[in-house]
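Expect sequence, tokenised fold; for instance:
***
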Amino acid sequence: MRLTDHPILRVSRGEPFSFTFDGKVLDAYEGEMISAALFAHGIRIFGRHHRDGAPQGIFCGNGQCAQCMVIADGVPVKACMATISPGMQIEPLDELPVLPQGRLPQGRISHGPTTEAVEVLIIGGGPAGMSAAIELGRRGISVILIDDKDRLGGKLVLQTHRFFGSIEAVHAGRRGIDIATLLSNQVREHASVDVWLQSTALAVFSDQVVGILRNGEIYALVRPQVLLVAAGAREKSLVFRGNTLPGVYGAGAFQTLVNRDLVRAAERLFIVGGGNVGLIAGYHALQAGIEVVGLVEALPECGGYKVHRDKLARFGVPIYTSHTILSANGTEQVESVSITKIDEAFNTVPGTERSFACDTVLIAVGLDPVDEFYRKAREYGMRVFSAGDAEEIAEASAAIFSGKIKGVEIATAVGTDASEIPAEWALTAEVLRSRPGETVAEEIPTEEAGIFPVLHCQQEIPCNPCASVCPHGLIEIDGNDIRSLPWYIADRIGKECIGCERCVIICPGLAITLVDYRQEEDMPVVSIAYELKEGSVAVGDRVTVLNTEGVPLGKVEVTGVRTLPRNDRTVIIKVKVPKAYAKRVAGVCAQKHAAGKPLSKAIERSTDDTIVCRCERVPEEDIRALIREGCRDINEIKTVTRAGMGPCGGKTCAALIERLFHEEGIPAEEITGEVKRPLFIEVPLGAFAGTTRDER
């Protein structure tokens, strides 16, 4: 199940070594996480819940829950965050961990953590945190930038697609993985910025210090003059039958397994949610050679960028709007998924149930800001700012610019820079974080001679790479608002397209084709951007071409495949197409129609195992019963059911419980919210005592 090649990512591994899982000898590679090594061998069940024996597997892939807990060399660890080592003996966790018997080893107790003062502490090394650190570093301000991963970049390191936005402001047209490297290098150019990796913020305390766990064992306290929270967002979840089966997890976990760990994390994937997160994850699955069986979206239209939606449709992925998931099906892990149509009131429509064979159900139904530290810092009177998704959920390009602005604002706050932020920055920030605008009917050019691009953009989104790279300025976007649609203006300015293909290559939505009538007017050549596995399309192949909506237009011959280094891993496929539909060609079908074919009969999951609190296995029916009995306090529900008392600290279930109140018709003002746990994640007690792992 390991990836051996990828159209965008470099796949390189050293020599394998052995480890054991549940007594079986398996192979792994240096630097792999335990979860990746297990997935590589098709192992998705990492243990069983102590309460009811339910199978447990990966869920968040980000260290914020404990669904993937295993015993590694006698120590309980989160498989998604722990690196595997030669000879490691791993056992599934089938019950609560117990302390070793007999006399415990005597460690040396230090005097506990020291307190470090700094002008600015930044929580989160993603696009916003890095951009802020760069601005502060340029001004010589002392900064500690912390991130809980082993490298800077946040979710950028998982993004293989090109980014939208402005080339000038946020590196649009580059891939997220490359933007992560660019910003990380810029951060490290500044001596005043101290980067702490594998460091997790635990809590903001009333004496205005922040507790930080470094490398899982060293506890430090930092007292900043200013705190910037750029901790990103966490994924929302859903409740449905079978929602905790191994194989049901979020887009972040999926992208981590595929794009960081280079594991083909599924054979057949079904997506729930048509926002950008779900649409992009589907595209990443196709790049990894995974069949995408289908996607459901509860709204009448997908909420993400239409070009992201169209990419999936053009590659042959069925998209079901006004549909929702009924259940994930299987005994020990996902074997199929059942969906149904819903009406305008979001009620299910009887008789519309369908089931699809799949091994993975990806939940991508929105994000919530990780803003606990910001709210607590404000409560304690600290000077605190937030940036990126921790401030407002938007695209990563918006987070980059948000961090840049906050960096300058903080410089002013510490008295280093009194310059005002340019007025145009505010406009740029507004544009970048704006939601998709109007969708218009596709306009097909009338010309049928020479060579020219066809712009398949139909929705107003912030994006200008095509206009920025055209050497003759033949593509125009409103300079005051890059959300306007691009236009081909050769006739207006009296110049001609030279067929350089730069606009085709750089378009983040793969929404530009080049139509060339110069060799044969009746069978023009169409150039199409393609970012799937090299060799999957070759000269002489017959391929199905589709329009923007994914409707097949015909089977045509591939006459050329260009893989030039300057194209930055984007392949250009050339096909000869009848002129009757040449200008409507927008893509090449990447997977067979049979991949999305439903089962002959819909599957109804008889077991009512809809779980709200995954950590403590609290079913939906128990919480609804308490609400109907008059309970209005989430803390009371926590006391009775243990919902929210598990390792994740209520990060997932609290929002789901609030939703149940809403569904039961309880006004928000009648509900008492959850009291948050003081510590963000679990911490070994020895870390507070000052011992090291070897001494425990």
